[in-house]
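ok, trying the design again with the full structure, not the truncated one.
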């Protein structure tokens, strides 16, 4: 057993990539607004290392607005095929422009164009409006690269707490908890 929850998470994610039928990188992202009202949605993990867990989005979206006023978030991975769950809580910071540019360049062209066309989380009068904006973005960038929109980028959750949950028979589950300290991580167990 390792005392490094980031390495343990990486091993579990690698295993999930071989067993989960769809999107093993899918994670529930929970945020809260200035009044503490929670909101949760699924996003995709696009990178993780000792600095934290990264996802990308429109920085004018609802989640981005909530993170702007309350820079704390929680993540939850659930891998049903492995009967495992990982919960992560921590401070949120922006990924660098360089990181955001590098990831944006790996996206499909249509996904890049969609980032320009969408006012994510804002009311939409009709699907045709979005489709027309997508076609306009297509025409605007025809024949060239699609740059990253200024309102689009990455967020990193810097973990303060990581819980690794493993299913056990008769609901006698195993819950390992890691809490960040100045020198690394403290490890403990939680009752199931």
């Amino acid at each position: 057993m390792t005392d490094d929850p980031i390495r343990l998470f990486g091993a579990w994610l690698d295993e999930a990539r071989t067993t989960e039928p769809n999107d093993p990188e899918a994670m529930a992202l929970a945020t809260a607004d200035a009044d503490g009202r929670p909101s949760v949605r699924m996003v995709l993990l696009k990178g993780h290392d000792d600095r934290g867990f990264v996802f990308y989005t429109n920085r004018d979206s609802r989640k981005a607005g909530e993170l702007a006023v309350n820079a704390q978030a929680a993540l939850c991975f659930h891998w049903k095929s492995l009967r495992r769950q990982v919960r992560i809580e921590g401070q949120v910071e922006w990924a660098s422009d360089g990181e955001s540019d590098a990831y944006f360049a790996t996206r499909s062209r249509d996904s890049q164009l969609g980032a320009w066309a969408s006012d994510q989380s804002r009311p939409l009068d009709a699907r045709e409006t979005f489709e027309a904006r997508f076609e306009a973005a297509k025409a605007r960038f025809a024949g060239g690269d699609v740059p990253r929109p200024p309102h689009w980028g990455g967020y990193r959750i810097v973990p303060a707490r990581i819980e690794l949950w493993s299913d056990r028979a008769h609901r006698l589950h195993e819950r390992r908890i890691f809490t960040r300290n100045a020198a690394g991580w403290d490890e403990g167990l939680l009752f199931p």
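Keeping the full-length input from now on. The chain has a mean pLDDT of 96.
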